[in-house]
Design a protein that fits this description.
Blueprint: E1 6-9, H1 30-39, E2 40-45, E3 50-52, E4 60-66, E5 69-74, E6 80-86, E7 91-92, E8 103-106, E9 110-116, H2 117-126, H3 128-154, H4 157-172, E10 186-188, H5 193-200, H6 204-216, E11 220-224, E12 227-230, H7 233-240, H8 244-251
Antiparallel strand pairs: 1-2, 2-9, 3-8, 4-7, 4-9, 5-6, 5-8, 10-12, 11-12
Helix pairs in contact: 1-2, 3-8, 4-6, 4-7, 4-8, 5-6
Length: 253
């Protein structure tokens, strides 16, 4: 595991945590929060660093506070594939397992609220309300993964691209400064084109063509390779082939 560039105790700082009302910590009592403060630490990782590698001891769990974490799986022949993305307030790591099933990589600069896995397992045993919230969150995540699998298997490339851009647009709401009421929202794209193409099961060239079609249609405006302006959300939803409610579940909002 790569060493983080910064480690500082979160004790006494949970009240000011930017994800408190969006994470499992929100379910904790005052006593639970005090205990969580004692066992949690803030860790920062620069973009591209490995937080936890596949096959390593899975001794770290917690919440993403800032940035995006990329989950990858390495096949027996050495090919790596992106299997998921974690955004602020998402839970990372694998409980009740001694080994990490996936590789966790910082897709952007990342800040984590990190906890030793064994300590957190003991914490959950003491605080069933938090454990219940965690189970619910993981079941919601499982539903979103299944819906995403249905989309990638049965939809066109344009539908997959539109769906992912919509997901990024919802998740960008918690990462970028709020814009004025008359300004179009900005979408932050945390991955490069090759990574997005891998995640969608297409090629970078096909991905770029579809993005250009969305831009020429006036649905998005390309600001740079990492930021789009969303001009027509209703048309983006139509291009996805999904209902807004289904897209929101996939985005796990």
């Amino acid at each position: 595991m790569n060493s983080p560039v910064d480690v500082s105790c979160l004790c006494g700082k949970c009240d000011n945590c930017v994800i408190l009302n969006h994470s499992l910590c929100n379910a904790g009592s005052a006593e639970a929060m005090a205990q969580l403060n004692r066992i949690s630490h803030r860790r920062s990782y620069p973009r591209g660093s490995i937080i936890q590698a596949q096959g390593e001891p899975g001794d770290l769990v917690g919440n993403v506070v800032k940035g995006v974490v990329k989950l990858s799986s390495m096949s027996v022949n050495g090919d790596g594939h992106i299997v998921g993305l974690l955004f602020p307030s998402d839970f990372f790591g694998r409980l009740f397992s001694d080994e990490s099933r996936f590789s966790y990589e910082a897709a952007t600069d990342v800040t984590l609220c990190a906890i030793n896995r064994l300590a957190f397992e003991r914490f959950l045993a003491d605080h069933p309300a938090v454990e219940h919230e965690l189970h619910k969150a993981k079941l919601d995540e499982l539903d979103a993964v299944r819906e995403w699998a249905a989309i990638t298997n049965g939809h066109t490339t344009m539908q997959r691209v539109s769906t992912l851009i919509y997901v990024f647009s919802r998740r960008s709401e918690n990462q970028l400064p709020k814009r004025g009421a008359n300004e179009a929202p900005i979408i932050h794209i945390p991955l490069g084109r090759s990574d997005i193409a891998d995640f969608l099961g297409t090629t970078p060239e096909t991905l770029s063509r579809n993005i250009q079609i969305l831009a020429r249609s006036g649905i998005i405006r390309i600001m740079d390779s990492r930021h789009f302006e969303l001009l027509d959300v209703a048309e983006l939803i139509r291009c996805s082939g999904e209902a807004r409610e289904d897209l929101n579940r996939i985005a796990a909002i």
